[in-house]
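Problem: given the chain below (633 residues), write out its structure.
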Amino acid sequence: MATNIFGIGITGLQAAQAGLLTAGHNIANATTPGYTRQQTIQTNAQPQMTGSGFIGTGANVVTVRRIFSEFLNAEMLAAGTQSSELDTYYAQLKQIDNLLADPTAGLSPALQDFFAAVQNVAAFPNVTSSRQAMLSAATTLQSRMQTLDARMNELRDGVNQDLGATSQAISTFARQIADLNQRITVARNAAGGQPPNDLMDQRDQVLAELNQLVRTSVVVQDDGAYNVFIGSGQPLVAGTQAFSVEAMPDTLNPAIMTLGYRTPAGLVALPESSLSGGRVGGLLAFRREALDAAQNGLGRVAIALSRTFNEQHGLGQDLAGVLGTDFFSVGDPQVTNATLNNGTAQFSAAFAADAASALTTSNYRLNYDGANYRLLRLSDNTVQTFATLPQTVDGFTLTLDSGAPVAGDSFLIRPTQAGATTLDVLITDPARIAAAAPIRSGQGAANSGTGIISAGVVDTLDANLQQPVTMTFTGPNTYDVTGTGTGNPTGLTYVPGQDITFNGWTLKISGAPATGDTFTVGPNAGGTGDNRNVLLLAGLQTGKLMVGGTASYQTAYASLVGQVASKTRELEITSTAQGTIYQQAQTARESFSGVNLDEEAANLIRYQQAYQASGKVLAIASTLFDTLLQLGN
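Solution.
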């Protein structure tokens, strides 16, 4: 009997000691990141059968388990990777928002200053200082656009660098998980299947940090090892084997980096659409959805300004009486061959006549399937199919210059991305500003009627634009026209105020001309004080020249700023909300798995009392045994 009491006392001491050790371990790791509260699990020992019934023989400590919920942990990982993605996206986009909306360093002030200078030339067309101020304002506008574009390129380079550093961190975490998988398996086998709780906590903490970088999915093997997958199912960790990801040039646009998966055959690019969640997902979404659109939107304004301003400037004449030349220049659309192409095709793109109105802020991908070309607009996935080229789409014309594509070849077309950085002011001499109109209308000194001719407007650069033209009335309602390029028509019907168009110009005659009255149109010799063309240039500021004829330069830019601001505000709200969800998920997990110091303090007292009671059992057993020995004497 004393022997059984000794055994019961010893098992009680052992159980209490295990509880004390576990509680102490919990308390020591209360602030350790990723630590999961542990608990001793004990059962009663096999009772001893006697004639008086079954008598207990003590307690056994079966295992030490961690209080862990797969569901709560998965919820926390999912919320965490989503929160990291939104936080990254918002932090990046906020920089563009601050850049574009800056009241002094943004584009709006530079545009306003430029057109104010144009209007000043309209007020003083023959004053050199006004003309020089217009050129200075144009140079400032060019510099402002290039500065904004350069900052966006810096953000793009920053994304490239960040992806490189993040890919290294992902590979490092993968190796750590594979190493922990091995250590956990070895420890489990050595302990007869008992779980190595602390190693498992370390592994879960590494997995949580990995999910801050990229979304993962986990499959648990029978031996407790984690298989970790990313992207569209690529294994990052398979048992004790770790795979790596690396930053690599995008196959369609080598100027940007994407993530590649290392295989025995080399790096294979992971589809961006599959890399959601975490810092990687935020960086890629920012570049794809916001940075490209913002830079393209800025470039579109530069291209529209250059083309429309040049078109109108070419319809005027400078102080020397020479027709206007291009005021601005801007680069052509960019076409890039995918690095995996097997064909020899070389494509080029040029702006179409309606570029200012028709251009979008999207990039395009051209795919060749062996028979047809498929042009995908990346902003909305609209597809157009062509059997042959050239073709004009959305304000640009795509042409096959040389070679031939083969099935599977792809090409990236960026119509507007380089618009802002390539904008240049071509005119440096103030006298070359074409402020005047190249034609001048007049009426005969001997006219006896009340007919009045308008100043006229130049529509196109006709070869005979400045050739003298005379309109002679042969009656109150008919007139003849003579002059090069007119065809010299006779007997034309006169309608007061109706447009009269020849040689690229349009004018009106109103009133009641008399028979024999003449009206003339000819070169504007000595028109240094003429401001008709510069007035039209100033009017471009408010003209609906962009976005299908619905927006001015300023409106298009304001729309870009508004879109960025709206998206920034949306991300600020959603990232804050997701951060709250993540905190709630962490709190739920912590309330279930975390260490409660008050509870552990109570456990210490409980285990201490159990230890003391078990010691008392041993003391009583010793006394009983001594009594038995004395009876024998």
